[in-house]
Specification:
Length: 299
């Protein structure tokens, strides 16, 4: 009996050991949270900086496109330079080209415009050097999709088209794929349209015609919308604000003010009272005599 009693650590030492282990566990948790918090601040700050960079790039893009749109029209890029034509360097260039429309190879592409739903009318233009370029002559409503209903707009002979250079839109629209065999087009896929009509030496881009190439009322040209959403400053401010809030929470935790009771006497007294009540409940549970049961029941 004496040996068993000696092997049991004294109660104060056991409590101290348990308290030390709890302290180490809490410290480990705290350092882990601080590490994750600092990583979060760094990540949020990086996202804010990235949005600032994106805003600078977007403003530069808008300025370049505005210059291209309002510049004097230039000639169509030569076939030898078609491979170097890119969206970043050439899209929305104001260009002019002369040739003859191939109305029998007209393609209708579904569109939704400010005038309502309908179709873009893409007609190949055969230039004097034998190359072909698709021209988006404009918009027609569903009741004008048949060329017979808009004969006044079917220009014959050599014409001069002025408009904006646009890049191809491959594959199709949102959740809808082009179906060349059925003649259903949801995007202005230049390569697919040229292949479907057997157009030789077709340019890999098309032209959005200005409002004046057709003397008739249809198709309606000049409906190109040039709009670049630029919400990057709002996004940057959001990320920076979140980073500041998280950093403030970390500083509060590091200084000790974020821990309940570290600098709040009222909270500390309440926490001590809760500990006393828990201790009393444990003592009563170990010896639930008649008086104890009566005390618990009347509490």
């Amino acid at each position: 009996m004496r040996g068993d009693a000696d092997s049991t650590p004294p109660l104060p030492l056991a409590r101290e050991g348990a308290k030390s282990r709890r302290g180490r566990t809490l410290a480990l948790r705290r350092y882990t949270l601080l590490t994750l918090g600092m990583l979060g601040v760094a990540m949020l700050t990086a996202l804010g900086v990235w949005q600032i960079q994106r805003r600078t790039w977007k403003l530069d893009l808008i300025e370049r496109v505005e210059q291209r749109i309002h510049a004097a029209p230039t000639t169509l890029p030569a076939p030898s330079s078609w491979r170097t034509v890119t969206a970043a360097g050439d899209e929305y260039r104001h260009i002019t080209v002369s040739g003859t429309f191939l109305h029998t190879h007209e393609t209708l592409v579904q569109a939704v415009t400010s005038d309502g739903p309908g179709f873009w009318v893409l007609t190949p233009l055969r230039t004097t050097d034998g190359t072909t370029i698709l021209v988006n002559r404009g918009f027609v409503p569903p009741d004008r999709r048949d060329p017979a209903t808009r004969r006044e707009g079917e220009t014959e002979g050599v014409v001069t088209v002025t408009g904006l250079l646009r890049m191809s839109e491959p594959k199709g629209g949102f959740l809808r794929s082009n179906d060349p065999a059925a003649g259903r087009w949801y995007s202005r896929d230049v390569a697919a349209i040229a292949a479907a009509h057997g157009l030789p030496r077709a340019a890999p881009f098309f032209i959005d015609a200005d409002a004046a190439p057709d003397p008739g009322s249809y198709p309606v040209g000049g409906l190109t919308i040039v709009r670049f959403p630029n919400n990057h400053l709002i996004y940057a401010l959001t990320w920076f604000t979140l980073a500041i809030m998280l950093a403030a929470a970390l500083l509060r935790t590091i200084s000790g003010r974020g821990r309940a009771g570290a600098s709040d006497p009222l909270w500390e007294s309440r926490r001590a009272a809760v500990r006393r009540l828990i201790g009393a409940a444990r003592n009563l549970s170990r010896n639930p005599g008649p008086d104890a049961r009566a005390h618990i029941g009347s509490a």
